[in-house]
Every structure is written in structure tokens, then in C-alpha cells.
Amino acid sequence: MPIKEVYAPLKSAELFKDWASKQKKGRPRKRPHSFEESVPHKVFHAGLNDIISGKGLVNAQLVAWRHFHTDAKGNHALVEIKIGEKEDEHILQEAHFGPMALDHKSLLPKLKELKKLKDEDFELAYLRIFALRINTIWLRADQRDNDFFIPIAPCFNGFVAGQLYSSPDFLKLAQGAAQRFYQNNQARSREDDDFKGG
């Protein structure tokens, strides 16, 4: 199961390269990052209404590109370049350092060993569903029904960090969590109304 090589837009790649060069106290990097080093991948956000309604991730929005970085001392980072509102606008958003970045990158070789993933090539992506506190690696197949997900710790709503979920299993859990979230918010809203009225 090779990860499909998907390259970030030039402006995102340039911002990442500029950020990386500054991590070495101003000394520019002499060689370019290879795909295997930086593994540029898309970041998507999904809305709660689509999850509740059963639409799944058809409307998930591409919001950023992420790049892996390892400096000369072996420190790991995930660098996120946000896509702006204007066409072809990219903004350096944040860098995540430490074990989380290493955990993400170290997952890639492990994916090749999973039998369920042997028959197809996948595009590596990252998905956030903020309201449900879901952060997951999203392995995107040519058909959305063939996608797989690997949640990242800390996990909530019944998800297990590092476990491989098929698209139907992932969406079923997410939909249940979204419905509970909606019901809890409705109940809180009624309690607030009762409190104000009482």
C-alpha cells in the first residue's frame, strides 16, 4: 500500500521551506525536502450537520496543508499552512512539536503492514471534527466508501487511538457522537430556558 504522492501548492511548499530554514538558526537548508521526509498532506474540517444528517464527509472542506519536518538534532514537527480566503492565499498557521509529530510520521511505515490496506493506494490526509474532538488520519481511496481512518490521541466518543476504522465504522461512530452532542446541547438549552423563565 504505497501512499500516493500528492504535492502541496507552490506557496504552501515555499512557506514550509522558509520555516524549515529558520529552524537552523538562519542557515538555509542545502538540499530540498524529499517527499518521504515532508509528506505534504491535506487537512480537512467536517461539519457536524453533515455527520448528523448521514452525508458523511462529502462536504469536508480543505483548510490547510501539513508537512513533516525533522531538524538536524532529530526534533520532529508538523507544520501547518492554512489556505486563506483569497484564491491561492497560504498562511503559516502553526507548528506542532514533539511526540505527536513523531507519532504521526512513524505511523506511515506501519500502514504498509496492514493487510486491510494491501489492495489499494491511498492519499494521506488529516481530518478534524472540532465539535466532537475528533482528530484522525484519513486514508483517502478513489471511492469514499473504501476510505480508512486512524484516530489520534487523545480520543473521545468511543474511538481508540491508533486503531484502523473502515469508512462505514468510522462514520457510524461519528454519527452517534454527533447525535449525542446535539441532544446534550438541546437539553442544556432547555435547562437554560427553564432557569431564565423560573
Q: Gap between N and C termini, in Å?
A: 61 Å
Cα Rg: 19 Å
> What form results from the Cα inertia axes?
globular
The spatial strand order of the largest sheet comes to: 4-3-2-1-5-6-7-8
Strand fraction: 25-35%
> DSSP helix count?
5
- Show unreliable segments: none
The whole-number mean of residue pLDDT values reads 85
Largest sheet: 8 strands, mixed
Number of strands: 8
Helix residue percentage: 25-40%
Which sequence of SSEs, written as H and E, runs from N to C? HHEHEEEHEEEEH
Which structural class is indicated by helix and strand composition?
alpha+beta
Describe the structure.
- This protein has 198 residues and is α+β, with helices and mostly antiparallel strands.
- The mean pLDDT is 85.
- The protein is built from five helices and eight strands.
- The chain is globular, with a radius of gyration of 19 Å.
- An eight-stranded mixed sheet has the order 4-3-2-1-5-6-7-8, with helices on both faces.
